[in-house]
User: Which sequence fits this backbone?
């Protein structure tokens, strides 16, 4: 199925005015259903909630602007290396995101909207994962040489 850009953008606009309560619900859902990922996050989630919310809105708003979206997603994927984010974590985030959107959109959440968000999320995840993989590629390793060590005294 193709991504219905209008549905992604309209649903993003619908939750935009709700603010960080969307992110609060998201994290509550994720930590309740997938407690194993809680340790990957700070104790104080205030800043993290804002970052997540802003990311969701940016992605929904720019779903049809690949020249904005792809570099952002690549940077996001690379940035998550430091948190030890792995490919198997992305479905956890996706399930929590979809459940959050369904919760806040209520009757506006349709099968077509769900399918569009699934497609969009899977595409975004793939870009993030591939960027992280490229950034961690073994070919980037530069061996240490004797020139890197101070001379013996």
Assistant:
């Amino acid at each position: 199925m193709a991504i219905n850009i209008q549905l992604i953008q309209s649903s993003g606009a619908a939750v935009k005015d709700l603010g960080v309560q969307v992110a609060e619900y998201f994290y509550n859902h994720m930590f309740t259903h997938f407690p194993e990922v809680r340790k990957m996050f700070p104790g104080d989630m205030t800043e993290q909630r804002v970052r997540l919310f802003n990311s969701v809105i940016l992605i929904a708003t720019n779903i049809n602007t690949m020249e904005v979206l792809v570099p952002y997603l690549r940077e996001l994927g690379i940035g998550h290396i430091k948190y030890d984010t792995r490919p198997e974590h992305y479905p956890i985030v996706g399930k929590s995101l979809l459940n959050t959107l369904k919760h806040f959109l209520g009757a506006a959440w349709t099968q077509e909207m769900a399918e569009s968000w699934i497609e969009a999320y899977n595409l975004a995840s793939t870009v993030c994962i591939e960027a992280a993989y490229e950034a961690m590629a073994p070919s980037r390793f530069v061996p240490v040489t004797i020139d890197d060590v101070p001379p013996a005294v």
